[in-house]
Structure formats: C-alpha cells, structure tokens
Write the structure tokens for this entry.
Amino acid sequence: MKAIALTRYLPISNPESLIDIELDKPVPTGRDLLVKIEAIAVNPVDTKVRAPKDTVEKTPRVLGWDAAGIVEAAGPDATLFKPGDAVYYAGSITRQGANSEFHLVDERIVGAKPKSLDFTCAAALPLTTITAWEALFERLGVSPEGADEGKSVLIVGGAGGVGSIGIQLAKKVAKLRVIASASRPESAKWAADLGADHIVNHFDDIPQQLKAIGHEQVDYVLIFNDSDKHFPAAAAVIKPQGHICSIVENSEPLDIGLLKAKSAAFHWEFMFTRSMFGTPDMIEQHKLLSEVARLIDAGTLRTTLGRDLGRIEAANLREAHRLLEDGRAIGKLVLTGF
C-alpha cells in the first residue's frame, strides 16, 4: 500500500523530511478496524513529532492523526463497526499514523462519519473535536446540555483547528458567551462567523480588551495557543473559583500560584491520553464522535475545513506541515485521496 513516512527528522524544506513509500497492508486483530483512508487532516502534533532531531528510525514511521475512510475489515473482537461503514477518527499517537492507504485503529476511538459530510470535510474534525469537547465538557466541567447558559468563556486561539470547533461547541451546544482571540482581519472574521460574540487580539493586552467590552472577568478560559505567553492573562481574567484549561505544553514553569487567591483550577487536556494509556473509558471518544456527527447532521455544528491541499502524497503533505509551522493557517488543512 502507498504511505507517506519518515526515517529521519528533518526540516520541512528538505524533500526527504516526508517521503512516498510502499508498505505491507496490515491485518486487523482484536478490536482493530482496517480502514481504507479517503482523506486525512494535519495538526500541530504532526509537525511537533516530525521536528528536527538526531533520531533515525530503523523502519519508516507514518504520521497522521486525523482520518476519514471506509472500514475494509474488522478484527474478531470488533462489535461497533463492520466492513463498508464510513468512519472518522484521530487514532493513537503510540501507533503508526493514518497517512497511508490502509490504517489500523481501535474501534473504541472511532465514530461513524457524519452522513451530511463528504470525507474531506469529515477528516477535518476528529482530533480537534475530541480535544475541544474533552477540554470544555470534561476538564472544565461545562454542561453539554446548556445548564451553564449565559456564562462566559475566553478562547485563546479561536481561528485554529481546535478553536474553530471549540467556538461552536461553546456557543451552540453549551450556550456560553464566547470571547475568542484572533490577530488578523481574516482570522477574526472566521471566528465571528463560527459564533464568537466578541473578538480580542492575543498580541495585545487581553485583560484590558476584556474590560473594554464589559467582561473584566470570565467563568472559563481555554488556552489553545502558547501557554507560556497567555497563562498570566488567563490567571488575571478568570473569575474566583473559575477554571482554566490548556492544550499547549509549556516550555517554562507556569506560575500556578497566581490562581491561589481565587481558588481557581487549572487543567491539562491531551486527547491521546485515553488511547495512550488504554483507559477503561476509551469508548467515550467513540461516543463523543458519534454525538458530534449527530449535531453536524442536525445542522448545529459545521466542518472546520480551511483548505483542501489536494491528493495524499508527500509533496502536498510537506506543504501542509510548512503552512502549520508558519502559524497562519485558518481552520484545518486536509488532503484527499491517493
């Protein structure tokens, strides 16, 4: 089968950083599904894993943690899906990725593809949707039934992949008042079109901007961009007994002491935790992807596709990595078909 892989960790400008190869078609066992890949999306985790370092892989490593496709075969213990089913999922970072014609994935972290979306639009959703859903509803404890309607959330990084679905979940499902950050006119428009009530610039003074729009403090903060830079602002604007969640690893220690007087809580969200550790509740990702598919088919949520970069091949995948590393992508970058 065709695949895009690496053996050395090189700058994306190097044509050997991601290469077209042939691999053996895998065989599903246990609860695995063998999925024929129709479309993939690219995320910052792909660029972080591929970042230059001295390691050399003895066998080609396939990246890619966003996919939509058709079940080709199912392992003997699989019960949720059968051959022919259309699915979407993010996979596990501890296994080979989905940048290949066929891919093995545990069915417990797979959802039925939204019927109203094609594979390209569906592939844009899984990783960021799981991340935003878990951050908002599981880490922050916001009600997905709208019981927290009218409370406020600041979403730092509103136009990125996670922010794009996070705005929708916060506004249209949780019924929160959403303040999203964006730094350019086009990204500000994107965030507003997705449902943000207010836009602030994360390169400027966030507390001062919130004060100017009458939201000096907020109930929740979601940090989807640069924890080191934005944690102090989050600590300044969070309400007493509020909750902050970040998905971006820090390079310097975060001053959690800033939260003590407010009895505020800080949470991490890493959507690979369940699959990485094989937690007993892995199937929750299947459930949430299925619920999101229902919300999409009902017209409540929409795809976060930003650009379709063409066929699934090394040259196009390198371009997707380059665009993400430039830090100016809006929405999700997707590749379709081999």
Observations:
- The longest strand covers residues 32-42.
- Residues 283-297 form the longest helix (15 residues).
- Residues 2-125+273-336 form a domain with the Quinone Oxidoreductase; Chain A, domain 1 fold (CATH 3.90.180.10).
